[in-house]
């Protein structure tokens, strides 16, 4: 059955006029007549009967018109749904991210995105850096946001979101709290150490190598960002952490920065990855655009 012919017949049936149907469909009257004639021939039934200057639906025509109305309604639903998908108002947004951006950067951005696009289904999958990239390779994620080295990855395009600062932090009651000290003096203090293999631990060890300093004594080893911050707040020692991780605790006066004299600065790039030469799904495009604008605004407002 010719589906477009059904749509043409729907317009004839609802307007009661071949002329008006032709105007709405922007085709010629003979074309409308031909579609209706072909539909009647295909079904082997008379669909229209003359009525003065208008038309009258036969019983077969009325039954066909009811089906055609449902088809026309479905066509409109399809058009609306795909238009909404095209502008990112509906669909899915799948994000793979490492712990730092997942917990301290993306959640607020996702909340703002959901306010603007409440019908988009969002998933945030927290993984280590390699697994987050693999999720992108395997089409299990639309974008990957990775904190750490920000290395180039084959087949993926890098978008550097920000260069996160790394801070030394201590409890407000710590003897070095609020002071400006040398790196050597700081490394005499016990440190909260992250687990082996963690990016935070690797960054601290790299700093020791760069400055030829001995690795500080370990007060306690913990697994996870939150555990590290809680251990510092409890007064167990100093830690070297992301500013994204620490700034809220510092604002609440649970932690304080320890300033270091000389060159002791390392930065932690937060990088968004997409697949090379592939267009993002519309919802992911909208999220990425909003994320980049938000970060740019935040970092140009100071």
From TrEMBL:
Pfam families xrefs: HTH_1, LysR_substrate
Keyword hit for DNA-binding: yes
GO MF annotation: an example: transcription cis-regulatory region binding
InterPro entries: LysR_HTH_N (IPR000847), LysR_subst-bd (IPR005119), WH-like_DNA-bd_sf (IPR036388), WH_DNA-bd_sf (IPR036390)
Residues annotated as domain HTH lysR-type: 1-58
Keywords: DNA-binding, Transcription, Transcription regulation
UniProt keyword annotation of Glycoprotein present: no
Highest taxon, organism lineage: Bacteria
Similarity annotation: Belongs to the LysR transcriptional regulatory family.
Protein name: DNA-binding transcriptional LysR family regulator
Originating organism: Paenibacillus taihuensis
Lineage: Bacteria, Bacillati, Bacillota, Bacilli, Bacillales
């Amino acid at each position: 059955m010719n589906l477009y012919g059904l749509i043409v017949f729907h317009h004839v049936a609802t307007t009661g006029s071949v002329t008006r149907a032709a105007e709405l469909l922007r085709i010629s009257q003979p074309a409308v007549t031909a579609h209706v004639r072909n539909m009647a021939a295909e079904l082997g039934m008379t669909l229209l009967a003359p009525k003065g200057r208008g038309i009258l639906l036969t019983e077969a025509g009325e039954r066909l018109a009811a089906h055609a109305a449902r088809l026309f309604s479905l066509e409109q639903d399809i058009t609306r749904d795909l238009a909404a998908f095209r502008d990112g108002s509906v669909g899915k947004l799948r994000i793979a991210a490492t712990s730092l951006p997942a917990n301290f950067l993306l959640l607020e951005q996702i909340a703002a995105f959901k306010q603007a696009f409440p019908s988009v289904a969002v998933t945030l999958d927290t993984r280590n850096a390699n697994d987050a990239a693999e999720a992108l390779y395997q089409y299990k994620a639309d974008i990957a946001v990775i904190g750490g080295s920000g290395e180039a990855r084959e087949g993926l395009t890098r978008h550097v979101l920000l260069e996160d600062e790394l801070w030394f932090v201590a409890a407000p009651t710590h003897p070095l709290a609020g002071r400006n000290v040398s790196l050597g003096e700081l490394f005499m203090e016990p440190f909260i150490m992250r687990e082996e293999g963690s990016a935070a631990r690797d960054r601290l060890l790299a700093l020791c190598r760069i400055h030829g300093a001995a690795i500080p004594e370990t007060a306690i080893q913990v697994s996870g960002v939150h555990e590290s911050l809680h251990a510092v707040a409890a007064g167990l020692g100093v830690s070297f952490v992301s500013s994204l991780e620490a700034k809220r605790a510092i604002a609440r006066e649970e932690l304080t920065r320890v300033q270091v004299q000389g060159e002791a600065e390392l930065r932690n790039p937060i990088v968004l990855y997409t697949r090379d030469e592939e267009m993002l799904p519309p919802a992911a495009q909208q999220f990425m655009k909003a994320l980049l604008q938000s970060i740019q605004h935040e970092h140009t407002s100071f």
